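$ fold --in a.seq
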Amino acid sequence: MKKLILIGLLFALITSADAQREFKGGIMAGGVTSQISGDGLGGWDKFGFTAGAWVNAPLTDKMGLNVGLKYITKGSRTEQDTLTFNSFGFYLNYIDVPMLLSFDIQKKQSKFTVSVGPYIGILLKQEIRINGASYDVIPAFKKQDIGGQLGFAWWPTEKLFFEFDIASSILPTRPAPAVVNKNSYYEQGNYNQVLQLVLGLRFGGDTKSE
């Protein structure tokens, strides 16, 4: 809880400081598909959602610093067996704080933004679901998820954008249940991997004409 309060205060401070300059920020929401590297399940079969807010502090006419605060579901699951109808999955809920450098690209009447940088995730809830029943995760996932994110946004208007993001843990989020090759990066533990497609709305700070 203390970490969430600190993250909220940091987000509010950045918003307040940015508002004194050229405020750019907004809200976003969308769908998520995820998997966990190293869990032995494989496939992008775990679907969920994300929603949150972001602010942008302009550094130059083309470059800025984006800080977000969003709720996001992660994890992995197997497809339901067509013979036994058994199902298994890891269900993880996080608050993520991405801190990204953004670069605007103007192409005729269209604007695109590329963003890249690290994120910090705080785990809110974790569980295993087997055939609809909930069980504790052993060994448990760590409270933090530290990783990197790459995003591509298209702005059909000055206020509206569609964004596709790729995110992956850099440090293991969970100890590996079994290690065969100690020198293998992916056998050091489990890593969250997420694909996100979101719709965003920007408030304030009209885009400068090119």
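$ fold --in b.seq
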Amino acid sequence: MQAMIFSAGLGTRFKPWTDYHPKALAMVNGKSLLERNIEYLQEYGIRDIIVNVHHFAGQIEDAIRDNKGWGSRVQVSDERDQVLETGGGLQKAEKLFQPGRPFITCNADILTDLNIHQLLAFHQQQQALISFGVTNRSSSRSLLLDESGRLCGWRNNQTGEEKIAIPKKQLQAKAYSCVVIFDYAVFRLMEEAGFSGKFSLIDVYLRLAPDHRIMGYDHSGDRLVDVGKPDSVAKAEKVFP
């Protein structure tokens, strides 16, 4: 299985580090976030990895080259011209994926020990187009799932804004873990739905949800740290030695 690690973001919440470096190279106990995610994927036998780059792209390319991909085959999807967010970044990288094969994505700034083998088994059992990890942790935004775990909507917990793709009376709010398994057909479906340029994967999920099984896999209790701000590094260093 191939994987893509989203590493192109500007990291505006992670200043002052990101005034001079990409967030993906921020260190947690002596290892960069990028290295930790590559090692996480290696634990499940995944060594064919795509990394997208934009902010201080050269630093990430140098780190990959100097460390020989930390033991993985790492291809770079270059977004120097324009940062494309997660959806646009995935679409741009299509040519680097093996046609017809499912693949996994994760975010460089999320550290977790979600069991990828269990997520993949869930994805296959559910015959889903897309399956992603979710937990019960507090979050500024939530995905809204029905009793079976199917995605039905999204909520901004700070503003109360909701986007409902499948109206149902009772929905569970879960936090998105950013570890996602996709069937390769998602590329064709994104194109058919008119997606291009800069857009979020959340928008893709909500657009495709009424006609395709998009499922949340609850792994509450697993370790997970969103290393989104400099003060979260200390928390990550306690959780991930």
